[in-house]
Amino acid sequence: MKASDLFVQCLESENIEYVFGVPGEENADFMMSLENSSSIRFVLCRHEQGAAFMAEVYGRLTGTPAACLSTLGPGATNLITGVADANMDRAPMLVLTGQGSTTRLHKESHQIMDVVKMFEPVTKWAETVIHEDTIPEIIRKAVRVARTEKPGAVLIELPEDVAKRETSATPITPVRYRRPVAAAAAVHEFAARIRGAKQPVILAGNGCVRKRASEQLRELVQITGIGVLNTFMGKGAVDPDMPECLYTIGLGSKDIGTCAIDAADLVIAIGFDMVEYHPHLWNPEGDKPVVSIDFLPAEIDEHFNPENELVGDIADNLAALVGVFRDEPTEGFDTAQQAATRRDMQEDHKEHAADDTAGPIKPQKVLFEVEKLYGDTGLLLSDVGAHKMWIARHYHCRTPNGCLIPNGFCSMGFALPGAIGASLVDPERSIISICGDAGFLMNVQEMETARRLNSNITVMVWEDHAYGLIAWKQSQEFGRHTDLSFGNPNWGHLASAFDWHFQQVEVGGDLPEALKAAKDHIGPSLVLVPIDYRENQKLTERLGELTCSI
Length: 550
Known about the structure:
This protein has 21 helices and 18 strands.
């Protein structure tokens, strides 16, 4: 058979469902082979970056890689930002790029560049198919590496002449393996260290939103009564209605949740990635006792040096820990500061819930209304900008992966294409993206993709006519900011041009009705909200005056 046919068969044997991308001349053979697949769907995108974000969200929600595809040269460079975002946010992904003939890779030639070397820093593994018979091994390894904790992106480059060759090789049958767990003695030692603390607190990171890990974490929390702070990417690991939920931590400045860590005599980091919230921000002296449960040994850092580690499958290690505490219950911990943290955060969240004034709407009010509609079983995807900080602080979901925030690589332009990918994973789920007016326009062309697929999504744009997060950060450091303002399109005309349902909200009290209308609409909806980012500076001033109280 032709090598490109074998390539597709190998993808089918790995149960790859989607390839998102923009093809070119150099992967024409692959595209012809893919067209004959009965189990893989190709989604034509309007930009390679959008394709990568769609594949990233698919991987984050399912734990199984989808593929994103580009041609060589500029197609590959367009792809790389989304790939880097997926890799740093631990999303399994296959990256498929075309390449010119192997007979011209060694010399100056049209559109030829070393794609593999370019992608090596932003993938777990990157490889070129030099010989057609190696395709089964390369794809089997690629999928295994992409799925292995911590998950990430893997690149396979297929040169155009290799794709055309004949081969007698056949796909390798996938064999899954069980992740290892810590020894029983290590689990008992870990439990003893927790029992020796008076005010332990749990810091739940990205690794905790895996379904089984979240279930076991909730059980551990119920048995021990230890409070949980989640990172931006750990949202939904514990239910916000649980009394032990201390909400989200991760702002660059001191916040209410920091009080719980300051008071703790032991931080139990579970599934924590340092790319989420660097330890120097919550353990500045490096003297806070820390223990860790994670898939891999802890990264070396002077501010994060765990005394004890349970390395291996998080869910299984948590289950073993639950068993120890169930057999030998704790006598209880001092949770007064944690109770105060939860109380103060709840009061903060409700401050502007009833706001119904006209004009720019407060971020707190918007998120209060969004959470009522989407917080139980829906999905919110955040883009990157000032709105991300408000979503992280004020939006709470009850299911793991109920809120997706890019917080490792932090790439703008994520949320619109990400929502399209999410709608393919679960067409019946209520999905909303929140974007700034800057981030939305970075991948605005994918509005056509959403319309073509009839994606059942709502995209809310917070309009402030500026790069609001940069203005916020500059103002914090320098007391002023540079000119960061820009103009915007007529949003109603833009929505009409792409045949999207459109609403503009000018009064806070109109938000519930507008959100419900968008949610109930079949197909893509755009909701425009003029946002009151004067709240940014007010939050900075309030947190600057923060004192921890019980």
